[in-house]
Amino acid sequence: MRPLVGDGGSVVVASSLTSTWMKQVREVAYDAEDYIDKFRLHHKGHQDYDGNLVTVSMRKIIRPLKTLNAMYSVANKIRDLNARAKKVSERRLRYKVETGGGATFDGHVARSSSSCNDWDRRLPALNIDESQLVWSKETEMCINSLECDDSATRRVVSIIGSGGLGKTTLALTVYNSPTVKAISTRAFVAVSQNYDLHILLQSLLTQLIGNASGPSSLVREETAKGRIKDVETWGISKLIIECNACLQHKRYFIVLDDLWSSEAWKHLKAVFPYDTKYSSRILITTRSHHVAENCSSDTIYKMAPLPEEESKELLFKRVFQKNECPKELEGVCQRIVEKCGGLPLAIVSVGGMLARMENKTEAEWKKMQNRLSGYELEPGGTIGGMRRILSLSYNDLPYHLKACFLYLSIFPESYEIKRGPLVRQWVAEGFIGRRTHESNMEKVAESYFSEFVSRSIVTPTRIATTGVVRGCKAHDIMLEVITYKSIQENFISFMGNQQYMAGGHDRIRRLSIRTCGSGTSDMEQEFRPRKRNKEHEDRSMNFSHARSLSILRCKNRPTTMIRFAKLKLLRVLDLEGCQWLSDQNLKEICKLSLLRYLSLRGTNVSKLPEQVGKLKELLTLDVRETFITKLPRTITQLRSLKHLLGGRYIHYPSLSRVKALERGSALIIPRGLKKMKSLEKIAHLDIGSSSLEELSELSHVTKLCAINNERGGEKWKPFVASLSKLCGSITHLSIIQSTKTDKGLKVFWELKSVPVVLEKLYLWGTLKALPPWLLNHSNLVDLSLRENFLGRESLKQLGDLPSLLSLRLYSESYVGEELCFRPNKFTSLKQLIIDNLSYLEKISFEGGATNLERLALAFFKDPGAEGGICGINQLPKLKEIEFFGGVIVDSLVETVKNEVREHPNKVRVYIHGQPIEQY
């Protein structure tokens, strides 16, 4: 193959060759996995023979013959794969394909040199005129933190944030500010993930000598050349010694830009003297909060996206060289700004393209808006630079995280990705490898999720009181980068209405159907096949190799008919919100014997077929928010099942934290529960109709949610007996007595073993006093109470729980007229939710709950002049107060507004989720 003329052409050809070779290797690996799974399917087919149809003697004859035929077929396939693999290897050698580098997002091959690659990565950021950015406030804050002279010792300040937020630009603005320019010994060092320590130290030493040599730039240059002659031959030790000597007994200012790992800091910190009197400063930019903490940062400044008004100002300056926009373009400008999501780099990049447009008309700008909504962003231009920087979040991930990262593209735009379902899907897909010290793959998957949050790849949307991120969203532009890469690598294909995107690959490995009968988005219009007739389209869609299928929030049946029974290799099937799902569909789904994850959440299905017992490899069965209650007898054949999730919740529309299980929605499990040894999470179990004595044999259960709909409390006794044997594993326990009874939950006083690892507890039912085992519990962090009729003494006892972070008091949980938080009580509490306590008239904070951050309140009636809330000023860490429920007491709201007016935190006040005037 002849390369194109010029260096640039050679690079493009090299990129094309590398991409083609990688595709061929990938497809060989995929096919090998397919053949293995097909043989497993054959083996499972024999196991499922019905004895009524084939006699035992006939089986002995037929089975070996069919197995021999399958083995012969697999052997032929392996021989073909071997031949293909050899050809792929020969092509790599013939065309001298480089395997050490990879194609970047805009089609250029990554350079092998760490230094060149590093600057290539930063060019789009460094070429932005920082005067265009609205950084005055941020720059001032950062400089103030650097100038803080409460200590003359060396201080480290970190700026953290995701790619494209402007960390490098802010660091450069600070570095070039008059305050820092007054420091003669200074340097700006770009680190990167795959840094070359030798080159990095050379750069640092050159800058230190050059900046400190003399008043004239020429003098500095000549002096620097003399002192660092033959520096390329110096060893690491000599470079460290020379750098250290340049910094000794001086005030210095160093910027370490784009620090990816704590290991890099360990290598570098020895260079910087820890002086005690010169007030030296080190400024670090990083994407990881973990890295910032490991650098012993005195101050951590977290970059936030630009607010809407400042985003507009930046865009207008870039396009119109002023802070105003023509009225006819205001609407489309607003949508473009929203698409950029406050990312300065994205705004400046898009602004540059808009500025070059000859005709600044609404029609032309709408074309740009549509392009931003799809994937046809032209590489090589300003947008290419933006995508290249955003794609670093993928390129620089460790290998074991890359598949998990790409998997995020399976979720539609603006979709809240819930941590629990996501990590369970990762496990089902086979993305999670066991660690030597961690046998629970879900724990490993959760650590991967936390890594994405730490790297600012995803934005948290729901954070539990314990600090655990429960939900997140991928930024729109980041999602486009992930989606582009997923299509490029044939990781996920996308379909919706008439769109069909497989990136030129002939086999679909994972499929995400984004929209179903809900209109056509701009993205779909951009990627809609041109003049493709339906017959050709249906023929070209080969789903038989698909490993996962995701059809989310599709109220209408997909326009392209998918036969579930044909998807023999499917491992993950997510049908959340598919209202069109039928019983016949479920029968087809139950033929997918390799299925490991099945979510029917939010569908209208009411019954699982008996054939569900054939899903021998199923790990997760999610039937929450459906009408399924009674499970078939064959459910107990699912020996691999870990997560059995059911029940329907009633939510307050304005406060998702407040919810209650709908009566009659719990799961009824048939006899044989003890066979399901792998179960870890059961929610919700109807104990009135289930076999409770078998529960004690499920030694791996960590989450158990049980409900009794019968009036008598006799059913709780065998449950408590079983629970006593599970106290060593239960971390999350919900006990619900949905009908009022005098005995209620008093039987739980008889719990013989203390659930020592219990962290989350929900008690719904009459108690009148707390069980003794609860009073001294040291690990409990989350407690929810409902209809317990507890008095003041019980509240005092709860105040002594050392780890309690969240307390929810629902209706009739407490019968006192006053809730008083006294000194040294509720010392760890961060969240308090009070939901319509009938007798409550007054809440007073008298030195207790000093760590409280969030308070949510619902009252039945006006508490009167003597009641209400007092002592808010004694909650130094309070951040927000929210009023919810059917009745909003105006006098109470006014009292709270008066209380928070003088609060130093400027506490936010909400009504039904909507903010009111801030003080």
Automatic annotation (TrEMBL):
<feature type="domain" description="Disease resistance N-terminal">
    <location>
        <begin position="18"/>
        <end position="49"/>
    </location>
</feature>
<feature type="domain" description="Disease resistance R13L4/SHOC-2-like LRR">
    <location>
        <begin position="545"/>
        <end position="906"/>
    </location>
</feature>
<dbReference type="GO" id="GO:0009626">
    <property type="term" value="P:plant-type hypersensitive response"/>
</dbReference>
<dbReference type="InterPro" id="IPR041118">
    <property type="entry name" value="Rx_N"/>
</dbReference>
<keyword id="KW-0611">Plant defense</keyword>
<dbReference type="GO" id="GO:0002758">
    <property type="term" value="P:innate immune response-activating signaling pathway"/>
</dbReference>
<dbReference type="Pfam" id="PF23598">
    <property type="entry name" value="LRR_14"/>
</dbReference>
<dbReference type="InterPro" id="IPR042197">
    <property type="entry name" value="Apaf_helical"/>
</dbReference>
<protein>
    <recommendedName>
        <fullName>NB-ARC domain-containing protein</fullName>
    </recommendedName>
</protein>
<dbReference type="InterPro" id="IPR002182">
    <property type="entry name" value="NB-ARC"/>
</dbReference>
<dbReference type="GO" id="GO:0043531">
    <property type="term" value="F:ADP binding"/>
</dbReference>
<feature type="region of interest" description="Disordered">
    <location>
        <begin position="519"/>
        <end position="539"/>
    </location>
</feature>
<dbReference type="InterPro" id="IPR038005">
    <property type="entry name" value="RX-like_CC"/>
</dbReference>
<keyword id="KW-0677">Repeat</keyword>
<dbReference type="GO" id="GO:0042742">
    <property type="term" value="P:defense response to bacterium"/>
</dbReference>
<dbReference type="InterPro" id="IPR032675">
    <property type="entry name" value="LRR_dom_sf"/>
</dbReference>
<dbReference type="InterPro" id="IPR055414">
    <property type="entry name" value="LRR_R13L4/SHOC2-like"/>
</dbReference>
<dbReference type="InterPro" id="IPR058922">
    <property type="entry name" value="WHD_DRP"/>
</dbReference>
<dbReference type="Pfam" id="PF18052">
    <property type="entry name" value="Rx_N"/>
</dbReference>
<keyword id="KW-0547">Nucleotide-binding</keyword>
<keyword id="KW-0433">Leucine-rich repeat</keyword>
<feature type="domain" description="NB-ARC">
    <location>
        <begin position="143"/>
        <end position="324"/>
    </location>
</feature>
<feature type="domain" description="Disease resistance protein winged helix">
    <location>
        <begin position="410"/>
        <end position="482"/>
    </location>
</feature>
<dbReference type="InterPro" id="IPR036388">
    <property type="entry name" value="WH-like_DNA-bd_sf"/>
</dbReference>
<dbReference type="InterPro" id="IPR044974">
    <property type="entry name" value="Disease_R_plants"/>
</dbReference>
<dbReference type="Pfam" id="PF23559">
    <property type="entry name" value="WHD_DRP"/>
</dbReference>
<keyword id="KW-0175">Coiled coil</keyword>
<dbReference type="InterPro" id="IPR027417">
    <property type="entry name" value="P-loop_NTPase"/>
</dbReference>
<dbReference type="Pfam" id="PF00931">
    <property type="entry name" value="NB-ARC"/>
</dbReference>
<comment type="similarity">
    <text>Belongs to the disease resistance NB-LRR family.</text>
</comment>
